[in-house]
Design brief:
It comes from Dorea ammoniilytica. InterPro entries: ComF/GntX_DNA_util-trans, DZR_2, PRTase-like, PRTase_dom. Belongs to the ComF/GntX family. This is ComF family protein. The chain is α/β, with parallel strands linked by helices and about 250 residues long. It has a single domain, classed as 3-Layer(aba) Sandwich (Rossmann fold). The chain is about 40% helix and about 15% strand. Helix 5 packs across helix 7. The radius of gyration is 18 Å and the shape is globular.
Length: about 250
């Protein structure tokens, strides 16, 4: 147990040290143009980014074309284990490269700007949801070792710090290394994620939970994670992502 605790503490210290180096090398860098900006996202990029605006699906938050409709095509046909969710930007060409760099090319510093924007856009909504705990969507152990970090965890920790809400990065775990969701259709994604998550923490005792991830496409990952958290005792589960696909 002492060896395990020592290893865990060492890894934590290395992560903190690495994050400090990243902050030094990339101080408040705009994720979209690469220029140093004290605001994180520079004014020029902010002006052209595709923020999610009304009309959007009242359940998943996807942009929809007709104001008279409450739900997107998917949410009108399928029920979800989560209560509702929101995203900052539409997942289109101007947004994709920044998230890709954040997710796969060690641009962890971008997470700070993304999280601040998530709070800027939905801080009041998070308070309205009465969130008691924030949980990032976990990676499998092998994928985390390969990547070196979990981008959702970076977002969750920064949001938790800004909102003064506890963050749990240990209890929701990924049981298996699933095939990347982006190469599969909706049915394949659901099958791929069967039994993908497990809960290893204490019972949540009726609290409201906020799940954090980088991208929402079909919602399969969020939904399976929400089911797992609900089974652990959560009363309501909401989600927040950096970007989201288009609804209909």
């Amino acid at each position: 147990m002492r060896i395990r605790a020592f290893i865990s503490k060492t890894i934590s210290n290395i992560t903190v040290f690495t994050d400090k180096i990243m902050v030094f090398l990339f101080p408040n860098t705009c994720p979209f143009c690469g220029k140093v900006s004290e605001a994180g996202i520079c004014g020029a990029c902010r002006a052209k980014l595709p923020y999610v605006r009304n009309p959007y699906c009242m359940r998943c938050g996807k942009p929809i074309r007709r104001e008279e409709e409450e739900y997107c095509y998917d949410c009108s046909r399928h029920s979800h284990y989560y209560e509702s969710g929101r995203a900052v930007w539409q997942h289109v060409s101007v947004v994709r490269p920044a998230i890709y760099q954040f997710k796969y090319h060690n641009r962890r510093i971008y997470g700070r700007a993304f999280a601040r924007e998530m709070v800027r856009a939905y801080g009041r909504t998070i308070r309205k949801w009465q969130i008691a705990i924030i949980i990032p969507i976990p990676l499998s152990k092998s994928r985390r070792r390969k990547r070196g970090y979990n981008q959702a965890e970076i977002l969750a920790k920064e949001i938790g710090r800004l909102m003064d809400i506890p963050v749990d990065t240990e209890s929701l775990i990924r049981n298996k290394n699933t095939i990347p969701q982006k190469v599969m259709d909706a049915r394949g994604r659901r099958k791929n994620l069967q039994h993908a998550f497990a809960w290893k923490g204490m019972k949540l005792q009726g609290v409201n939970v906020l799940l954090i991830d980088d991208i929402y496409t079909t919602g399969s990952t969020i939904d399976v994670a929400a089911k797992t958290v609900r089974l652990a005792g959560a009363e309501k589960v909401h989600f927040l992502t950096v970007s989201i696909g288009q609804g209909t």
